[in-house]
Automatic annotation (TrEMBL):
<feature type="domain" description="Helicase C-terminal">
    <location>
        <begin position="337"/>
        <end position="484"/>
    </location>
</feature>
<dbReference type="InterPro" id="IPR014014">
    <property type="entry name" value="RNA_helicase_DEAD_Q_motif"/>
</dbReference>
<keyword id="KW-0347">Helicase</keyword>
<comment type="similarity">
    <text>Belongs to the DEAD box helicase family.</text>
</comment>
<keyword id="KW-0067">ATP-binding</keyword>
<feature type="compositionally biased region" description="Basic and acidic residues">
    <location>
        <begin position="521"/>
        <end position="531"/>
    </location>
</feature>
<keyword id="KW-0547">Nucleotide-binding</keyword>
<dbReference type="GO" id="GO:0003676">
    <property type="term" value="F:nucleic acid binding"/>
</dbReference>
<dbReference type="GO" id="GO:0005829">
    <property type="term" value="C:cytosol"/>
</dbReference>
<protein>
    <recommendedName>
        <fullName>RNA helicase</fullName>
    </recommendedName>
</protein>
<feature type="domain" description="Helicase ATP-binding">
    <location>
        <begin position="117"/>
        <end position="305"/>
    </location>
</feature>
<dbReference type="InterPro" id="IPR014001">
    <property type="entry name" value="Helicase_ATP-bd"/>
</dbReference>
<dbReference type="InterPro" id="IPR050079">
    <property type="entry name" value="DEAD_box_RNA_helicase"/>
</dbReference>
<dbReference type="Pfam" id="PF00271">
    <property type="entry name" value="Helicase_C"/>
</dbReference>
<dbReference type="InterPro" id="IPR000629">
    <property type="entry name" value="RNA-helicase_DEAD-box_CS"/>
</dbReference>
<dbReference type="GO" id="GO:0003724">
    <property type="term" value="F:RNA helicase activity"/>
</dbReference>
<dbReference type="InterPro" id="IPR001650">
    <property type="entry name" value="Helicase_C-like"/>
</dbReference>
Amino acid sequence: MEEGFQLFAAAPPKKKKKLNNFSPITTTINDSKSDNKIKQNKKVLKQGECSPIAIAEENELLLKESDNGASDKDVAIQNDEYTSLVSFKDLGVSEWLCAVCGSLGITNPTPVQRGCIAAVLSGKDVIGLAQTGSGKTAAFALPIIQSLSKDPYGVYAVILTPTRELAIQISDQFKAFGSGMSLKVSVIIGGMDMQKQAKELSCRPHIIIATPGRLRSLLESESGLGAGFRRVRFMVLDEADRLLDPSFSSELKCIRSFIEGTHAMAVAEGVVRRPYRLQTLLFSATFTDQLVQLQKEILDPATHVFKAYDGLKIPANLREEMLFVPAKVKDVYLYYVLTHVMPERQVRSAIIFTATKDACHLVGLILEELGIKAVTLHSGKTQRDRLASLALFKSETVPLLIATDVASRGLDIPTVDAVIHYDIPRNPADYVHRSGRTARAGRGGWSLSLVTQHDVGRVQGVEKETGNTMNSLEALKGALEAEALKSLTKVYAAKRAAMMRTAEAEGLDTGKSKRVKRASRMMDKGSLGEE
C-alpha cells in the first residue's frame, strides 16, 4: 500500500451508487437550564462512550420508522395493554425524568419502551423481545431509576450482561438517565481489581451492572457483602438468551439464590419488616426455549410479555451480500474488500467477525503487516486493552474493529457502516446479532459474508431462519478474482510475517504459538470452531 494512503478517505464525487443512509446524522440537544447536573453529566462523558446524542438519535429514528408503518406488520404483542400509550408521561414516567430525557434529546418512547415501561412501573415481571438497537436499555433503566428515586437505597437493582463491554455501555446510559439525582452505579466485570470491586460493593451502590462470573466470585469470596443485598428490588437479564446458555446457568442460579436467600434471612431476623418479591426483567433480541422454561420456573404467572416480532429479524435497511471464496485465499479477498470495495461504497467503518480469539489476533496482525489500521477485541485481551480498542473504534480514530462474538451483543456504535463475517457462525442467531451492529435505528448498513466451500450449509441455515436471501456477488466474481489475486503474494507474505511475530512473542515451543499455527491451518481449511 502506498505511503500515506488512507483506507477510508472520502472519495471524490462520482457516478457510483451509494449505500443508502450512510450520511452522518446530527441531533440538536436542548439543555435544561434548571438542571446543572445534567449539563455536568454531558461534559464528563468521554469520547468513545455511549453518548446521550447516540441514545437520542436511535430513539428518534426508531420512532420515525415505526410511525411510517415500516414495522407495523411485524408487531405481534401478547399483552397490548400498554401499547396505546404514546408519550413518556402517558407511560407513568415522572416529570423530572421526562425532563432528563428531553435534555438528552429523547422526546418520545420507542415501541419496546412503550410496550414495557408502564408494566415495569406497575410491578410486573417483564419479558421484552425486540430487535437489537431498539432502545431496550431505556425500557428498564427509566422505570428502575424512577422507582429508586422514591426510596433511594443500595443495593436496589442488579443487572447482568454477558459481556464486559455491554456492562460498561449500560452503565453509561444509567448515568445519563440518572444525572438528575445522586445515582451510584458500580460495574463489576472481569479483568479489573477484585479488591476494589469488593470495596465498591461494600459501599452499597444503587445499581450494580455485572457479568455473572465476576459477581458470583465476589459474592462467594466476600462474606460481608450479604447485608447490602437484603432489599434488592430488581434483577435484570440483558441479552437474556445468551445469559441463559448452559455456560452461565450456574452463575445465574448462585446470584439469584444469594439475593433471595439474604432477603429471606433479613425478613426472618426482622431486619426487613415487609417481605417482597424480586421483580425480574428479561430483555432479548431472540425468544428461546430457555426463556420459555425460565418464565415457567421463576417468573410470575402474570408476567407481561412484549414481542416486537417473531423469529430472527434482520434490519430492513441492511444490505446482505455474500462472496464465495476459496478458503485458502480468504485473506486475499478480505484485503481486496477493505482496500477497494469499501472505499468505492464510501464505507467509513466496519467490524470484522471471526470465530475464535486466535483467528482474531492473527487477522489483526495480517492487516497490520499490510498497513491497514485496525484494532482487535476478544476475550484473550486484558480489560484495559479491550476498553482501549473499543474507544479507538468508537471515536473513529481507527476504522476497523476485528472481533469475536464478544462484540456481537448489544454494543451501540452508531457509526458502524458495515459488518464482515470473516467466519460464518454456526448459530443463525449469532449472525443476526453480528449484523445488528450496523443498520441500527433506521440507518443503512451492509453485511458481507465471506463464504468458503465449507460454509454453504451454515449460510443456508441463516437464510432459512431469517427468511432472507443473501445477494451473491458472483456476477462480479471474475473482475474481483482478477484484481484480488494481484495481491496474492503480498497478502501471503504478510500472513507469514504475522505468524512469525506471534511465534517470536510467545516462544516457539509455547502452547499459544502452537494454537496460532493450528488456527492458521484451520483457517485455510475453513474448519474453525466457535469460541
